Fold this sequence. Notes:
Layout: E1 26-32, E2 36-38, E3 44-51, E4 54-55, E5 60-66, E6 73-77, E7 92-96, E8 103-114, E9 120-132, E10 136-138, E11 144-148, E12 158-167, E13 171-180, E14 186-195, E15 198-207, H1 208-214, E16 221-231, E17 234-241, E18 246-247, E19 261-272, E20 282-291, E21 295-305, E22 310-320, E23 323-332, H2 333-339, E24 345-353, E25 359-367, H3 392-397, H4 411-417, H5 443-449, H6 462-468, E26 504-510, E27 521-526, E28 530-531, E29 534-535, E30 539-543, E31 546-549, E32 558-564, E33 575-580
Parallel strand pairs: 2-9
Antiparallel strand pairs: 1-3, 3-4, 3-7, 5-6, 5-8, 8-9, 10-12, 11-12, 12-15, 13-14, 13-16, 16-17, 16-18, 19-20, 20-23, 21-22, 21-24, 24-25, 26-27, 27-30, 28-29, 30-31, 32-33
Amino acid sequence: MNLYAPPGGLSDQPALIIELITDSAVGCNLLALDPVVTQGTAPVLTAFVFENAAPVSGAEVSVWLKPPVGDSVTIALLDNGEDGDHAVGDGLYSAVFLAEQVGEYLAVADITGLTSNEVPFARVASARVRVVAQSATFGSGAFTDQGVDTNGNGLYDRLCITAPISIITAGDYILSIMLETATGQPLRAYGYATLAGGPQSMTACIQAAAILATGENGPYTIREADLMYVSSEGAVPADALHDLSQQTQAYLLSQFEGPPLYLTGEVSDVAIDDDTDGDFDRLQVTLGLYARAADEYACSACLVADCGAYFQCISNPVPLVSGLQTLTLEFAGAHIGAHGIDGPYEVRDLNLYGHDGAHLSLWRAATTSAYEAMEFDGFVPSADCNDNGLPDSCDLEMLRSSDCNGNGVPDSCDVSSGFSLDYDGNGVPDECQPDCNDNGIPDVCDISSGVSQDCNGNHTPDECDVEAGTSLDCNHNGVPDECQDCPCPDWLPGFVRPGFNSRVNAVVNWDPDGDGPLPAQLVAGGSFSQAGGVSLPYIATWDEPLWRPLGTGVNGTVYALATWDPDGEGPQPPLLVAGGSFT
């Protein structure tokens, strides 16, 4: 929604209240994935069409596109996995258009369709795309790379990539290059330079620490390059290259200047059968390692299935020398066999701590060969209780199944096997659902079967509302007061109880001087401590228009009030008597 002031402006600041009531739970938006592009490129427009969190299929998305100059055009956005669309049926409707003019394009989407309940809906969304003149292009030559040793110690401090560039508009430029390791880990190189017009070259570099953090040797693959022009309005695109596949030299991690501890990227593994019974008793994983200082290091690591299920975690001290070496981690074959999950396996949560503060911590340190679980001691076929082709431990680790009671078995299997009850049939074991009255039956089933009432519709049995104090029950009939028209006597008009911060349990009319000149007083007692900001410790008198304290009050709840005349018709005035839990 766009709001515009009149041409003459506003002389005051009006209050604007908008109430938006939609016809369904369908939400839509229109985005330009690249809101600023260079002239001659084809930006993508994408409309998001979802009903709650579910993608809406079969919608019609028509976009009215107005260029900076000239007539508008209409384009259709489709959810077909083509023409800029990422995937079929994901609720993202996309199309590309050619940005031929410099300036701003306005796109307005008209989105219509049917909800999951066959209810028609209509939505409107808009987006803007800014098109700038191309200030530079990448040249036709290949990218080059080299290691740079800034401190002359024979180790590279950074890896630099140089790109050929043709400059149209002289000025400041930013170069960003994305590389990948062999396993797909990203590396990002950056550079900044002031360039004159004509053929030029520009360099972007990666610090050695970022390369060492991957734990992988080269070569590294150059995937993307983005060139930005720093204009007076900020950085804007100049040119981009995607889907590149050029490789760097085959650098080794040991060639780079590193921290006190780092892995070199060399990994090997071997399974060992100690008792020659044909089953592997141990799995050894050996990692290439560099340590700056010789020391005894505290070492810990875990062996994990590819799906994330943990087999075994080990912890022990290891002596390391200064320089390049290997670190061998040993895991018991029985732990692998007992899980029954085939490899390859991963070494995760590797931690090394030295006495001098040197520390290495890697979430994923290595991947083993593709062993079969049946090759190891103590093999037990992995359980797959729901027959989905995944071991139960993987199901739970990958969050494809839930295990609310923590017994290592998917909830659906607990229910289907009869291990757990599921009164309401929602797939969640009853022991994991609220049971406020501790009768072994979920509250929702108590309510649906009529065992318990839920008069206020908050999905909690009434008796639990009352017991927890979330509902009052002044007449103690088990029904929350909000569900009854007049559960207990209330104040008459004119004697409302403004400001009482808790319950009034009793009221009485008391004449403190009997036949004397003073008027009778209305006295209230209860569990309150104030009214209208006035301190009233559990007892108060009405002095219109306010409640006022009666003496110094009492130190606990008042439950009953009465008057007592000790000498009957005698001269003594009646006394006020209060009963409660005070001293």
